[in-house]
Amino acid sequence: QVQLVESGGGLVQAGDSLRLSCTASGRTFNIYAMGWFRSAPGKEREFVSTINRSGGRTSYADSVKGRFTISRDNAKNTMYLQMNSLKPEDTAVYYCAVDVNFRLDPATTSLKYDYWGQGTQVTVSS
Fold first, then answer.
1. Would you state the pLDDT for residue 26?
2. What per-residue confidence (pLDDT) applies to 104?
3. Can you tell me the distance from the alpha carbon of 9 to that of 39, in angstroms, rounded to the nearest whole number?
């Protein structure tokens, strides 16, 4: 079992920045990829970004490419999402997730992820 706790969400204005964190505990040695997904009201959960164990492979949704940066510190079992130039359409609950299966590239579909956090709310006002 892996437990995940997100933090760093909040209410900001358009153009501001936020950094989300996701800290894992439990059987963390099993973790391969870590990813961020988000759910906005009335919309399905969507992929945001993912990073493999070494940090050498990352992927981003087109909607956040160039504005968000994913990173991880394996010594702290923590993943980060630096979000810059936030837009109102970034408003959502952000979830972190982990995949305990090795893949050549980290997965971008939520079904591939095994454990999920409770989510942290990000609200961007215009």
1. 93
2. 86
3. 13
